[in-house]
Amino acid sequence: MKSRICKLLLSQPISNTQRQASTIETQKSHGREIKLGISAVESNIVQSYCESKAFSDAHQLFDEMSDWDVVSATTIISRFAQRHRHKEAISLFSTMLVMNVRPNEFTFGTVIHSSTALRDLNLGKQLHACAAKIDLASNVFVGSAILDLYAKLSTIEEAQRAFEDTHEPNVVSYTTLICGYLKKEMFDDAFGLFQAMPERNVVSWNAMIGGHS
């Protein structure tokens, strides 16, 4: 599956009782839409299933959808990733490509983060190459995910290149590279980049303080 990837080219917590009721209502709605033969609402139903955490229902409906779209696919992929079901997120991404659905920056950012969580550098590099082919690698959301991948699993030089290739890096991009420097005990580089940050947040301050403690 990994070798084919490039070739194939997000609420209030719900209680168990509320979640069950929400899922039942969504299933009833889905049943009505099937009877009416309406497919235009399938995407909204998929997202509703995800919001009520009925992932198996969402995945099944998504598999059966007549017209896949990037919003529905990315919604399920993101929900899987948020629940640390990274292999399922990657698997659905691969299926998405088979169905000729073009990923967007949020899709790529999510699956690259999943490859990092799985500690699969080879897969992450393939996803990086795939994003670059459709001019998404420099997007700040994708770029931050690529930077995180290399900072955690590869060399600091690759992380630096990813940072330099990111269009208008944000506080997340800066903080990720700073953490990479600190991990390698490159304290002067970390401090220099921290000083160069256009803005800082609690995470970036904590990274610097923790790195020097």
Number of strands: 0
Overall average residue pLDDT: 77
> What is the helix fraction of residues, given as a range?
over 70%
Oligomer designation: single chain
Sketch the topology as an H/E string, one letter per element.
HHHHHHHHHHHH
How would you characterize the largest beta sheet?
none
Low-confidence stretches: 10-42
Shape: elongated
Over all CA atoms, what is the radius of gyration?
20 Å
Protein name: Pentatricopeptide repeat-containing protein
PPR repeats: 69-103, 170-204
Pfam families: PPR, PPR_2
Organism: Camellia sinensis var. sinensis (China tea)
Task: Give the structure's gist in a few sentences.
The chain has twelve helices and no strands.
Describe this structure in words.
With 213 residues, the protein is mainly alpha-helical. Helix content is 70%, strand content 0%. The protein has helices spanning 16-36, 42-51, 55-64, 70-82, 86-98, 105-117, 121-133, 140-153, 156-165, 171-183, 187-196, 202-211. Helix 4 (70-82) runs parallel beside helix 6 (105-117). The chain starts with 15 loop residues before the first helix and ends with a helix. Mean pLDDT is 77; it is low at 10-42.
Write the layout of secondary structure elements.
Elements: H1 16-36, H2 42-51, H3 55-64, H4 70-82, H5 86-98, H6 105-117, H7 121-133, H8 140-153, H9 156-165, H10 171-183, H11 187-196, H12 202-211
Helix pairs in contact: 1-2, 2-3, 2-4, 3-4, 4-5, 4-6, 5-6, 6-7, 6-8, 7-8, 8-9, 8-10, 9-10, 10-11, 10-12
PPR repeats: 69-103, 170-204
InterPro entries: PPR_At4g14850-like_plant, PPR_rpt, TPR-like_helical_dom_sf
Protein name: Pentatricopeptide repeat-containing protein
